[in-house]
Design goal:
- The protein has 381 residues and is α/β, with parallel strands linked by helices.
- The chain has a single domain, classed as Rossmann fold.
- The chain has 14 helices and 11 strands.
- The longest helix is centred in the N-terminal third of the chain and has 28 residues.
């Protein structure tokens, strides 16, 4: 027994010394760079060829929001959504969220009000609404947002509903209930990453593993310009259907998630904006427009290519559901789908914006967001 205790003590001592040495080496020679800055080239019409994808360490893309804690006389707007919010094909300054921030800063500069607008980042492409619901339940309140803008719908329409799809509202609510909000002082994981280089690298590697797993199971989609030709080739090989009905209907899951999220925001007195998801989809597409599509739709029998008429009608159904829920929870609804022209000037594929498209989004939503920011600013005076 003494030999066992001695061996255990020696093992613990070696492990502790090794940990300290690795920590020192990493801290001195290879300090972990929080956040993510990636420069890359792309070949997409309507977008810059060289961009920098920059995400702050707490998961947002922004021109100004660089701390979880909100400063004095600051109005904070968080934009939640998937890839049409994350916009990985644009540098931060060209995103619609950053363009909206620029317009709001100009409008409130004379009142000495700082406006921060940040977009949900870290490559959320392919994620569906309930993943945002879970994140909001755990993280959102620690950022103290004054306004939350939601751009949701297309991933729930396209990616849900495949083989073995099942949805249980009770199960989703149990998952949400199990996640309490973090404190304003930030979570223990964040503190661990700041204090220990080993912990910071460990969290990064775990995140990369989760990303690869989500790419494999298609809960996240990689659609860099290098991969789009192959995605479009796979799309063209799928069965074409004029119309379809799915059982269970994924819109039920989407509706429950939006209802829960809007209720959560309302109960926490956060002004909310819901935007109808704009797309290139319309009953009549030109050949050039058909050539850029790659969003297949999942069904119990597998992926299919629905007709343009079905796609446009189904997206309208999801947007109508959002409008009705926004009215129920007294949120601001923006019919963004009717404010962005359905042409290749504004979209380079099914739903992702060109630079011109992003600027148009900012212009379109500014009149709706301005009164909400003014209300928050008036409370500060």
């Amino acid at each position: 027994m003494k030999n066992l205790r001695k061996a255990l003590f020696e093992w613990c001592a070696v492990a502790a010394v090794s940990f300290i040495l690795v920590e020192i080496i990493l801290r001195v020679a290879f300090p972990f760079q929080e956040g993510r800055r990636t420069r890359y080239s792309q070949n997409l019409p309507g977008l810059k060829q060289e961009i920098e994808y920059h995400v702050y360490p707490f998961g947002f893309r922004s021109q100004s929001l660089n701390s979880r804690l909100k400063g004095k006389r600051t109005i904070r707007i968080l934009c939640l959504g998937a890839s049409t919010t994350d916009q990985p094909t644009q540098s931060n300054e060209d995103m619609w969220s950053s363009q909206l921030e620029k317009r709001l800063k100009d409008a409130f500069a004379s009142q000495k009000i700082n406006v921060e607008v940040a977009a949900f980042g870290y490559g959320k492409g392919g994620q569906t609404l309930w993943q945002r619901v879970l994140w909001a339940q755990h993280e959102l309140l620690s950022f103290s947002p004054d306004v939350v803008i939601l751009l949701e719908g297309i991933n729930d329409l396209a990616w849900n509903g495949g083989p073995h799809y099942a949805y249980s509202r009770a199960q989703k609510l149990r998952e949400v209930a199990a996640m309490g909000p973090v404190s304003v002082e930030e979570s223990w994981k964040t503190h661990c990453g700041r204090l220990s280089q080993v912990c910071a690298y460990g969290r990064y590697l775990l995140g990369q593993w989760k990303l690869k797993r989500s790419l494999k199971n298609r809960s996240t989609v990689e659609w860099h310009s290098d991969h789009l030709p192959e995605l479009r080739k796979q799309y063209a090989a799928l069965p074409y259907v004029q119309t379809l009905r799915r059982h269970p209907d994924p819109i039920d899951e989407f509706s429950d998630g939006m209802d829960h999220l809007l209720g959560f925001l309302r109960r926490n007195h956060i002004e909310t904006v819901v935007m109808g998801q704009p797309t290139l989809w319309k009953p009549q597409l030109t050949n050039d427009e058909k050539d850029v599509l790659w969003f297949y739709v999942n069904t119990p029998q597998g992926g299919v290519r629905p007709s343009p008429e079905w796609l446009a009608r189904e997206m309208s159904r999801y947007n109508l559901q959002q409008a009705q829920l926004a009215q129920r929870w007294e949120a601001t609804y923006i019919p963004l789908d009717s404010l962005i022209p359905e042409t290749l000037d504004y979209f380079f594929d099914d739903c992702h914006f060109t630079d011109k498209g992003s600027y148009q989004v900012a212009d379109a939503i500014f009149p709706y967001v301005f009164p909400l920011v003014k209300k928050a600013a008036d409370r500060m005076d």
